[in-house]
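Justification of computing resources. Each target in the renewal requires a structure prediction run like the one illustrated here; the chain below, 219 residues long, is used simply to show the kind of job we budget for.
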Amino acid sequence: MAALTVGVAAPVHGQIYSWRDENGTLVLSDKPRPGALVRTFAVPRGDAVRATRPVTSSRALLYDDLIGEHARLNDIRPSLVRAVIQVESAFNPRAVSPKGAMGLMQLMPETARTLGVANAFDPEQNVRGGVAYLRQLLDRYDGNEELALAAYNAGPNAVDRYGHSVPPYRETQNYVSRIGEMATIASNGRPQTRIYRVVEVIDGREVVRYTDKKPGSGH
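Resulting structure tokens:
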């Protein structure tokens, strides 16, 4: 689920304004920031737009105790919870997806309400609810992590519709594979692979994939 939305509405040229907000985050907009001088540049039409979301180790460490506590309470490997959070939000507690999923573990509003999460942007509530939801999915699929992860990404109905198997959606299959790989590496004590969430907008449609290769690195 993406915290950054990139869209292509039509094959036109436009004006893009950029600045950094009070948190140092780069902001791109088709409108200038009121009352401020900003740098502008023309952007020609492109067939695809890429966005990547790596996680910094310092941000991840902020939530280590929280993850450990709720992973223990729900009998889930902490490495699995960390991998889900990295891919879902890159440890950004304010992340919001285009579909409305919120916070570290990207809870949908209805899911958050069901789990008793009053404020999905509060890390403690979000992780508590997200890990509890992951536990529910693991129980639903008899401890099968692949199916639980597929349901976390695509919804339980999709998993059930395809006969209790990972749905044939590229994003979901990539999601399950990457998170499983990251969690296993971390559990075995090996250096954790950095995973990038890449959004490509092709012909006006978002295509999401996960990769351990940094986009644009040429490797």
